[in-house]
Amino acid sequence: MGTPDDIGHALRTMNRIRADPYNGLLRERLDVVTDDGVRLSCGWTIPSLWTSDDEAGAEAEWVFTGNFDALTIDDRGPTPLETHAAYLLPDEGRARIFLRRLFPKAEPGAGSVFTMQVLDTEVTFTLDDRANLLMIHAPGTGKLPVTMTENWLGEPLRILFGQLIYPRFVSRGIRTGRMNWIRPSPSWSTETGACGLSQAGKSAMSPAEFWDSYARLLAHIAHAGDHEAHAITDFYVEVIQAASGSRWVWALTYASAAEGLINLLFPRGSRRSDLEAVDLIKLASEVDAFKAYVDLWSGDARLKDPAKGAAVRMLETSAMIALRQLRKEGWISPDNFKAWKTIRNDVMHGALVSPYSSAEDDALLLNLSELFHALTRRIVAGVDPATGALGLPPSSTA
What we know:
Layout: H1 7-19, E1 28-33, E2 39-45, E3 48-51, E4 62-65, E5 71-76, E6 81-88, H2 94-101, E7 112-118, E8 121-128, E9 133-139, H3 149-152, H4 155-161, E10 169-174, E11 177-182, H5 207-224, H6 231-242, H7 247-265, H8 277-296, H9 304-313, H10 319-329, H11 334-348, H12 359-381
Antiparallel strand pairs: 1-2, 2-5, 3-4, 5-11, 6-9, 6-10, 7-8, 8-9, 10-11
């Protein structure tokens, strides 16, 4: 509340935001100075402006209202290069019971601690059962830079628990000081636990399987090096949010997300992975001969390019071909394959899924979700925790 020093500049700024509300570069940063002189940064915001009525010729006061995403406090002074993130936990429930199983027994009055080696450094996890907090600490390294790691640490948690897990508190040590954030942290949902990789299948992951999966996911996410969430994490976030929607939305999301994971394993346009080199060369020769024949065809020219395009795609690994290969290698089950084949094309082309539960329909939907998790397990199995690079593991039946 108050009056801008430069009313013209303030009006121009507000008008730019209103004229182009999708341009994030036009947002304003909110800085605050408390009564005792502490400077706070509240991040970027798009404020709304209200003006009070003039009273007895007094200058009108401007009132800005709006939301901001975080609260940042800077501490000056020497600090180690490190990232510390704290996550709020549910008071009780299946996820909390599972979490306790992941940690060794704590000393009275202390938190339970687990450490792992990943990307050539030691990452430490602390479970504070009394404060309902999970804390993760990682030293800053070239592979885990402090400007990115605060986001990466939570991504495997979203995948493994099937929850929209984001840190409530982040502290970034930058050698010359420390930056501390308080951030929004959604509550855990009782409806989405089955969306998590750790809860998928007939039984929950063992502690060893959980920590191995976390390490591989973190290494792979860090290896990609993106500021935004990894594609795997984004697919899980969509599935988590779809869990509160209709059965059709649920089926659409799982089918699309599964295809997204297939494309990570077998990028679009990649050569057929199910053919020997000799057979692939022969097929390529026949495709070239077919394209030459179509070029000489005297019919409607509009049919030529689609026909040649379909022939060329015979040389590429489609989602169906990829799933057949994964079924053969034992990564997915015949029921997983059947569910995707039965549901995918129907739901993608407007066929509604029955809103009512039945043994047959539920089995298809559950097998479709298991396919999604099986593809994730295939990706995780191929990740090197030391480098994050994605390789080719042996078949799951080997």
